[in-house]
Amino acid sequence: MEKSKSISFTFAFFFFFFFSASGPSVLMTLGQLLPVVEDQGGNVSRIQTYIIHVRRPVETKLLSDVDRENWHKSFLPNTTLDTGKPRLLYSYRKVISGFAARLTHDEVMAMASIDGFLHAHRDERLPLLTTYTPSFLGLSERDGIWYTNCFGKGAIIGVLDTGIAPTHPSFDDKGMPSPPREWRGHCDFRQPLCNNKLVGAAAFRGGRPMPVEIDDNGHGTHVASVAAGSFVDGAAVLGNANGTSAGMAPKAHLAIYKVCSKDGCDDSDILAGIDQAIHDEVDVLSISIGSRPRSSITDSQPRPFYEDSVAIGSYAATRHRILACVAAGNDGPYEGKVVGDAPWILTVGASSTERRIRATVRLGNGTELDGESAYQPSSFNSTLLSIAFPGYDDQGGRRGCGNDSFGGIDVKGKIVLCETGYNVGNIEKGEFVKEAGGAAMIILNQREQGFTTFAEAHVLPAAHVSFSDALVIESYFNSSTNSTPMATIIFKGTQFGSRPSPAVASFSSRGPSQNNGGILKPDIIGPGVNILAAWPPNVEPTSQVSSSTSTFNFLSGTSVATPHLSGIAALLKNTHPHWSPAEIKSAIMTTADWLDRDRKPITDDYNGSDANLFAMGAGQVNASTANDPGLVYELHSHHYIRYLCGLGYTEQQIMVITQHHIKCSNNHDISVERFNYPSISVSLGSPARRTIRRRLKNVGEDDAVYFAEIEEPAGVKVEVSPYRLEFDRLYERRHFYVILTTNGTTPGKGQVSEGQLSWVSSKHVVRSPISVVFS
Length: 775
Ligand SMILES: *[C@@H]1O[C@H](CO)[C@@H](O)[C@H](O)[C@H]1NC(C)=O
Ligand SMILES: *[C@@H]1O[C@H](CO)[C@@H](O)[C@H](O)[C@H]1NC(C)=O
Ligand SMILES: *[C@@H]1O[C@H](CO)[C@@H](O)[C@H](O)[C@H]1NC(C)=O
Ligand SMILES: *[C@@H]1O[C@H](CO)[C@@H](O)[C@H](O)[C@H]1NC(C)=O
Ligand SMILES: *[C@@H]1O[C@H](CO)[C@@H](O)[C@H](O)[C@H]1NC(C)=O
Ligand SMILES: *[C@@H]1O[C@H](CO)[C@@H](O)[C@H](O)[C@H]1NC(C)=O
Ligand SMILES: *[C@@H]1O[C@H](CO)[C@@H](O)[C@H](O)[C@H]1NC(C)=O
Ligand SMILES: *[C@@H]1O[C@H](CO)[C@@H](O)[C@H](O)[C@H]1NC(C)=O
Ligand SMILES: *[C@@H]1O[C@H](CO)[C@@H](O)[C@H](O)[C@H]1NC(C)=O
Ligand SMILES: *[C@@H]1O[C@H](CO)[C@@H](O)[C@H](O)[C@H]1NC(C)=O
Hints:
Elements: E1 26-30, E2 34-38, E3 48-54, H1 65-73, E4 88-91, E5 98-103, H2 105-111, E6 117-122, E7 133-134, E8 156-161, E9 198-204, E10 209-210, H3 219-228, E11 232-237, E12 240-245, E13 253-258, E14 260-261, E15 264-265, H4 267-280, E16 284-287, H5 309-319, E17 323-327, E18 346-351, E19 356-363, E20 368-372, E21 385-388, E22 415-419, H6 426-435, E23 440-444, E24 462-465, H7 467-479, E25 486-495, E26 503-504, E27 524-527, E28 531-534, E29 552-555, H8 558-575, H9 581-590, E30 603-604, H10 613-616, H11 623-626, E31 631-633, H12 637-646, H13 651-658, E32 680-684, E33 688-698, E34 704-711, E35 717-721, E36 724-727, E37 733-742, E38 752-760, E39 765-774
Parallel strand pairs: 8-13, 8-16, 9-13, 16-17, 17-18, 18-27, 21-22, 22-23, 23-24, 26-30, 32-39
Antiparallel strand pairs: 1-2, 3-5, 3-6, 4-5, 7-29, 9-10, 11-12, 14-15, 19-20, 19-25, 21-25, 28-29, 31-33, 33-37, 34-36, 34-38, 35-37, 38-39
Bound molecules: 2-acetamido-2-deoxy-beta-D-glucopyranose (10 copies).
């Protein structure tokens, strides 16, 4: 990993775009129509890429690709720049009604007066923040239950990412059927590298589709194999972690859309990738790319859906019956940071597993503290070493183990304490420690990282410990005033059965959404800490891994949780080919586990308390129960349109998303609380009474009777009417009301209270979390 790519959050292990204050243009809507684009440098003549949304003419369906492209070009001042480069980068077919083009601010301003113009926003390129850890080969710690019934045969998962290493054994197609006959994708590798597993590959970068280069980052390869990697047996690295690796839907097909490079992913390329995936007819989209949390209008406002390419693209996908699974972000544990939060998206947070790659710290006084590391050299004999703590009170040097940390301190032959953060990645800290002559390293979590630790590819003996263990080490260090503080590391390899499990990862972005009018997000959590999956053999770190092509790696992040859900959605698509994206979502959410392996409430690895709904949504995905939910909540385009009207968007702004003319005025009920979502989230005054309407569809047995079971949020009385729902046949629908009442003795303004509603039959539990914010 290049030093220049040092990351600001060592735990932010995925492509995630952080708002950069330097240089975004500001775009506002003047009145109803004209965009005003201000360039920060006042430079209105700079040529940049803009995404332009235009009103789709009624007869568009009849237009050929060439006609559509010509129509899009008619909005441009001319077709080429002075340099001879074409202005038009993409003429989108399905994902939006519009195009991406190279223009100046003035030219966009001029275009706004052309009939049919709707909205323009500047293409964004933000740094790609990612890192990796080495892995052990061949181990799969995934539950067999996730794929024993159904391997996702026939389903196609579209992965938008950095591409793929196509010859990795995880993408071997032994035993794979050919893709469905309707499959329209193609394979743009330079060589014929596609097979029945890898049925499509396309790359988009700043314009036309181009040949797909082999994944030179690793992220895309990893994510794709988590979703649908083939079984890879009996391989091991350094004698550790021997087992079978497989994706969530090992018999599903993969279609790869390379829309990101090492430098990041552009909105215009993301839209082009989704456009192609819709055209190709994938079943599920896996998007481990964060949409930026900030608006281009003001840096404190969240980015509205009509400027968020992931939200816009996912809406178009949903309209084509493709479920989009999108990462919630790695900005935890702070509240209100969740992204990918549009209601048509399945928003995925991350949880830990019960596996640890143990590296235990032993202090000079005998106390042992369990940490993690993927690099476990047998040559390290665990003799006690004296501790150096750069930057700590009077110790000399600086904190964080960066390149300038060891100036005033001797770390030679010592075990060095390094705090997470300070813009230095964990592996990088080790490189600096080693360079300065340190013998070993202990990475101390700060408060925000809580109990979440990583097994990483360190370059020297190391252990990453939790914040609470960091405090013990610190206090031992403090108390050793008359003796030299000593410590060492004992490597214990791969261990299972860690508790509590699962727990919400400290980095997983939390709600409430700042953007979506109060819908509870994230929707679901899935495994996303130290996940083992395929890795390109030519990408670092390879030294500790293997010389074989069958290389694996650990990654952490909501980006890795996301393909778990994409794979599970593919499994459901196999058994329930007619379910809509909303129905698949509902099935996954209403059957999620809110208790952990010990039947206790799922905890939050930030501080060990019970996780709240803003951290875990409906809870931990449970593939086997999701396959047979009993009842589902449906949502259709007219619900989404009403919802968007309810957000207060103008009709033009909504058309950017829907591509079709809509009218808000005739919609009577636009309150988000009556939106048929599988979770319930309301804002309640005190005293107050609020009635929520929901409708369920029977997808279980012909005859079924369900009773409501309520766990009331503290301070709220909840009644359900009717409390009994009887279904006489499959696909029958029944609606019900939930009446929430507060009486003036409720918690204070801004307090949040949580409960749940379950519809229980002899065979099924259909559970919705209830979140009440007191206003
Ligand atoms: C504005 O942008 C143009 C084109 O990129 C460049 O030639 C010019 O120097 C810039 N002017 C300023 C003041 O930055
Ligand atoms: C295209 O238009 C721009 C101004 O909008 C002008 O500077 C440029 O010379 C034109 N290019 C051609 C090839 O006509
Ligand atoms: C991995 O496990 C398989 C089956 O248990 C065994 O045959 C193989 O020798 C093991 N490989 C290594 C490197 O330990
Ligand atoms: C452990 O390793 C260190 C450094 O490699 C060496 O100095 C020491 O003698 C070893 N101790 C034992 C007990 O082998
Ligand atoms: C330390 O790293 C910073 C940022 O990467 C760099 O600007 C600086 O030159 C480095 N200093 C040394 C002494 O290498
Ligand atoms: C260690 O001592 C420093 C002051 O020297 C203090 O700030 C810090 O809180 C102490 N840490 C612990 C864990 O006791
Ligand atoms: C070692 O020191 C730490 C920190 O002061 C303390 O919490 C722990 O109990 C001590 N262990 C023993 C065995 O005394
Ligand atoms: C843990 O964090 C949650 C969420 O921030 C908070 O509600 C809870 O009170 C915290 N628990 C403790 C013990 O501090
Ligand atoms: C999924 O749910 C079933 C039924 O409640 C339960 O027995 C099982 O343990 C759950 N699976 C996981 C992986 O938690
Ligand atoms: C108000 O509601 C709370 C909680 O639902 C309940 O305990 C209390 O008795 C109620 N008070 C009145 C005056 O109804």
